Amino acid sequence: MLLVTAAFPLLLLSLMLGMERIERPLRSEALGERLDEFLKSARPEEIETYVAEGLGPALDRYWRRQRLTNRLSGR
Asked: What does the DSSP 8-state code read for residue 1?
């Protein structure tokens, strides 16, 4: 019983790592679909983030700005 109790967290961790490996390519394709909209309306500092850190962090910064703008404008 002790062996099962000790092995369960390791099995769960292995499953989670495997799922993350499967999901990673799916997330990058979803980010690529929004690239066109991003490039049309991104600010220079967001483009610099894109070049330096990649598309994911740049889109995060862009969407945070969009949400802030929408909140300030009352949408």
From this structure: -
Question: Any idea what DSSP says for residue 34?
Answer: T
Is the domain of 44 the same as that of 70? yes
- What whole-number distance in Å separates Cα of residue 58 and Cα of residue 42? 9
Q: Give the range of the structural domain holding residue 8, as residue numbers without chain letter.
A: 1-25
Claim to verify: residue 66 and residue 46 sit in the same structural domain: yes
Quick: pLDDT tens for 24-63: 766 666 666 677 777 788 888 888 887 788 777 877 888 8
This prediction's pTM: 0.43
CA angle 17, 23, 25 (to 5 degrees): 120
Interhelix angle 2-33/55-73, nearest 10 degrees: 70
- Tally the domains of the chain: 2
| CA gap 26, 28 in Å, rounded | 6
